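Protocol step 4 of 6: structure prediction from sequence.
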Amino acid sequence: MSIQTVQISLIGFMGAGKTSVGSVLAGKTGRQFTDTDERITAGAGISINEIFARYGEPYFRDLETEQLKKLRKETEPLVISAGGGLPLREENRKLLRQMGPVVFLEASEEELCRRLRGSSSRPMLQGGSLEERIRTLMEQRQEKYEDAATVRICTDGLSVTEVADEIIRITRI
């Protein structure tokens, strides 16, 4: 019987701080950092916007699941920044929980608007007002994030380092 390496996964809405916090958390814990979106774009050789435009969202979601299955087999301890929509699939939520602690980084709608204003690299935010897109997507995703999470941390008003330190304190990694 093999012993599975415990991974720590960061989930949450785009702009919640997964990549920034994940990089700091990896440095503080001696783990490698990886981002599922970066792995997907590196493998595809095109941007997420281009993947959505050429192949559609379901295809992109399949790529997310594929990456998660690969990460589950990793033997090196990792901090994983999961794409904002990755937890939408039940299969992905189960895989995340099997891998180790799943930290839901939350941020208020106002804070997300502030952080995401001017972003053109996020296909799910295209069309309509930013505030309305964030509100609609948050309503669709909140329950899925909560279902996947073993830990919840609100990032509003906290520095990246403070969030990383809180994750270490709560998960004891």
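Step 5 (inspection) to follow. The first strand starts at residue 8 and ends at 11.
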